[in-house]
Amino acid sequence: MRSLRADRPRFAARGARARTFGAGLEQAEQLWLASQNVGAIASPLLLFYGLTQAGRAICAAGIRGAAWKGAQQHGLHFELTEPADRSPLDLTKVRVLPQGEGLIHQVAHILGSPVLSDSASLTDLISSLDSDLYFDDEQYSVPRPLEVHEEGMLQEPFGHPARRRLYLGPIPDVLASHREDVPAGPGNMAHMRIVPPSAADVAAWLSAYPTLRALGEPTNVQSPEPSIGRINRRDLFIRLAWGGDDRIEGVTQGQWTQQQLDVVYADGPNVANGVVLPSFGGNTEAQHLLVTWWLVLYCLSMLARYSPTVWTSLLDVDSSPLAVPFDHLISVARAKVPGLIFDAMHDLRAA
User: Fold this and answer.
1) Is 282 helix (H, G, I), strand (E, B) or coil?
2) What are residue 274's DSSP bridge partners?
3) What three-state secondary structure class fits 80?
4) In contact, 338 and 290? CB cutoff 8 Å
5) Helix, strand or coil, per DSSP, at residue 245
6) Taking the alpha carbons of 291, 292, 297, 302 in that order, is the dihedral positive or negative?
7) What tens digit of pLDDT does each residue of 280-304 get?
8) pLDDT, tens digit, 9 for 90 and up, residues 247-270
9) Is 337 helix (H, G, I), strand (E, B) or coil?
């Protein structure tokens, strides 16, 4: 974030906006650094308020008119159903709801992202992050982000017009549960194969992902297969196509794949990949990851500030199975959120 101070977006180049921009980033950086010197019990407070100060810098750089100073209210409401004595915290009982318009809504508007239109649980929020976390399967609810890779990259020369094809996963177990024996033949040994799921079942699965939902029902569904990069996790991926062999003139396979992604990880020749995100909380579109991290840190800061007994018990490594996953979640936030802030500022500089 420090590198942004000498190369500001043009709205924050001078005057009061520039001073707010610099002060916001300075406070964000100092709060973020301070969070490294305390444990998980206190660090969510520093991380969340560091993020809000960075949010004020984003507003100074991205909002036209008087609202650039940033709203004073959060625009959010926190609800917690505390567990009975000695019972573990149910993460579905930790909820955040929209409450009017606040700072997060201003930042989300700049990012071109929705914010919750209905309540969401901490489980929902954690489930929609694109990070490998330490939570068990029962702590996840909504569909997880999907890895998406350019399909057929070895078959087509670079620059060839694209087909609507993707390689994505992991797929739900239910879509890979039907198997059949294939007898030996002239070109193969006897083996068992996973029967491809129906196109309708695939479309129903992908309906939770707005960018993939827009593609409709696939016209070709291949057998699920282990992903080479994730085989130790026993994940299965699947190759899908829409529109048969129809070509899309004027766009390469990698460019078309990138257009389907919510987050791009690689965009070089023939290596396009990233993730697609699910919608939740009443939204019809996926939230920007910075907005989702904002909501996660808001929930953790509210737990730490207003329910310190619950929060402290949750982090007791001798008694809570969630202690290590939450400690790791906080570490991931500390590492990833500054990069998301930098990317948002970079986009504003380019605007």
Assistant:
1) coil
2) 148, 264
3) strand
4) no
5) coil
6) positive
7) 999 999 999 999 999 999 999 999 9
8) 888 888 889 999 999 999 988 766
9) helix
